[in-house]
Amino acid sequence: MSLSSSDGGLAVPQRYWAILTIAIGLIMAVLDGSIANVALPTISRELQASPAQSVWVINAYQIAIVASLLSLSFLGDIVGYRRVYQAGLVVFAITSVFCALSPSLPLLTLGRVLQGLGGAAIMSVNTALIRIIYPPRYLGRGIAINALLVAISTAAGPTVAAAILSFASWRWLFLINLPLGVVTLWLALRYLPDNPQRAKTQKFDVTSAVSKRRIQTVLTFRQREARPSMAADRGPGSPASPVYDR
């Protein structure tokens, strides 16, 4: 159930609770894109994997998001943004536990792929939900807050990871998403608004979605493969070189 204000958007205080709901989900999804960077040496050592292999803990998550973001956004137009967001929270929380309990790097990488799908569902409908939550005259403010949260979460990822690792195992980098996901799901069920769905005749094109996912995955993978050679060409002092990244 949603209450509308006279000038559009949600009425206060439901508007504030809805903003908090999408903010928490977005922060979780963005943080998990970089939070594992600090723990890669520990993960590599504990799971008996090489440094090159352990990098896929990061790559798998990011590639899954890039490959499925547009398709899930279109799915939100058909079945509703609220449903896609809630489904994303469920997938994200469950796969976070899967990642935390993974006994090997292949299973952890698989968990990160699935977690990336949940993160993509959260991110794909975030801006669309903002359009429904805010009145038109405040839409710019909502998008600005959204962009600010993404920037802060991206920058804060390594710091948050270091704080958690100072007193807990790397597995808590993922386990912490479970209570946050449960709370956010409860808020989403209670406060997020529905959106008008498209006509029943419009269907989700699975073949097209899979084709786009393949193309985006290949492009992202090739781009990541090209980075080491580009860094070598630039020399050890360049910002893209492995020496600089360390």
Automatic annotation (TrEMBL):
<dbReference type="InterPro" id="IPR011701">
    <property type="entry name" value="MFS"/>
</dbReference>
<keyword id="KW-0813">Transport</keyword>
<feature type="transmembrane region" description="Helical">
    <location>
        <begin position="113"/>
        <end position="134"/>
    </location>
</feature>
<dbReference type="Pfam" id="PF07690">
    <property type="entry name" value="MFS_1"/>
</dbReference>
<keyword id="KW-0812">Transmembrane</keyword>
<feature type="transmembrane region" description="Helical">
    <location>
        <begin position="146"/>
        <end position="166"/>
    </location>
</feature>
<feature type="transmembrane region" description="Helical">
    <location>
        <begin position="16"/>
        <end position="36"/>
    </location>
</feature>
<keyword id="KW-1133">Transmembrane helix</keyword>
<feature type="transmembrane region" description="Helical">
    <location>
        <begin position="56"/>
        <end position="75"/>
    </location>
</feature>
<feature type="transmembrane region" description="Helical">
    <location>
        <begin position="172"/>
        <end position="192"/>
    </location>
</feature>
<feature type="domain" description="Major facilitator superfamily (MFS) profile">
    <location>
        <begin position="18"/>
        <end position="246"/>
    </location>
</feature>
<dbReference type="GO" id="GO:0022857">
    <property type="term" value="F:transmembrane transporter activity"/>
</dbReference>
<keyword id="KW-0472">Membrane</keyword>
<feature type="region of interest" description="Disordered">
    <location>
        <begin position="224"/>
        <end position="246"/>
    </location>
</feature>
<protein>
    <submittedName>
        <fullName>Putative transport protein</fullName>
    </submittedName>
</protein>
<dbReference type="GO" id="GO:0016020">
    <property type="term" value="C:membrane"/>
</dbReference>
<dbReference type="InterPro" id="IPR020846">
    <property type="entry name" value="MFS_dom"/>
</dbReference>
<dbReference type="InterPro" id="IPR036259">
    <property type="entry name" value="MFS_trans_sf"/>
</dbReference>
<feature type="transmembrane region" description="Helical">
    <location>
        <begin position="87"/>
        <end position="107"/>
    </location>
</feature>
